[in-house]
Amino acid sequence: MRIGLFPFCTDYSMPIDKLAMAAEERGFDSIWVPEHTHIPSNRATPYPGGGELPREYSHTLDPFVALGIAAGVTTKLKLATGICVAVEHHTLTLAKTVASLDHVSNGRVLLGVGGGWNREEMENHGVAYKTRFKKLEEQMQALKLVWTEEQATFHGDFEHFDEVWSWPKPVQQPHPPLFLGGSSDHTLKRVVRVAQGWLPITINADAIIAKMQKLDDFANQADRDPASISVSIFAAPPKDELVAKFRDTRAERIIFQVPPQNESETLRRLDRYARWV
What we know:
This protein is an alpha/beta fold. The chain has helices at about 15-25, 65-70, 90-105, 120-125, 130-150, 185-195, 205-220, 240-245, 265-275; strands spanning about 1-5, 30-35, 80-85, 110-115, 150-155, 160-165, 180, 195-200, 230-235, 255-260. It has a single domain (about 1-275), classed as TIM Barrel (Alpha-Beta Barrel). It is built from 9 helices and 10 strands. α6 (about 185-195) crosses α7. The chain is globular, with a radius of gyration of 18 Å. The termini are close together.
């Protein structure tokens, strides 16, 4: 099982270049950086974790700028978003950004995407909260076309473009894997339809393991090989019993959260996590 990191990269935490180098030196498989373009100060949407929204949510670096910096100081570390709120991006721009990152990193991008939870944030981008997942699924389909076809066209309910050229193409073939966050049955079926990976947040390990079986059942029903869908356990508590439990499943990766702390505190945390590498 591979071990990844989920660092909240901010303007006050350990610099991303030093963090990426430290992660690669210790043998971690990947870093998964979050995204919030902004946090509306008059937000009414409750924080899914309960209580006050943590400070770091309004201080996150742009994920692709951060991962570009990480790409320049590493050679093996996978560069991932956890997650990219794709519905807040124009699809053609996102396709170019991800392909460019995959190009300069020599094929190390994993694109974790989701519909987002912050209604006011996405509405500031002109996105309708109720239809965000339908939009996201079309975006995932359109991204794959732009990355794989010389002249791509897409027409859906939310995404429209005719005969576009877009280079560079990603280094990874056929394209960087798309990981979808969430755990509802609708999400699992969407993973089967359009994703290469599932990225569940760890709240209850036994529930996630049961969902893995349901994901495989949905894949079999759709005549898709369940083994073609990678599972990465996201934001997992760093506990031996949890790691042992998921090692007995087909999950290929556990991703531990790295809070936004200074360099010395962060390095101590990475050293603690490294015993599972």
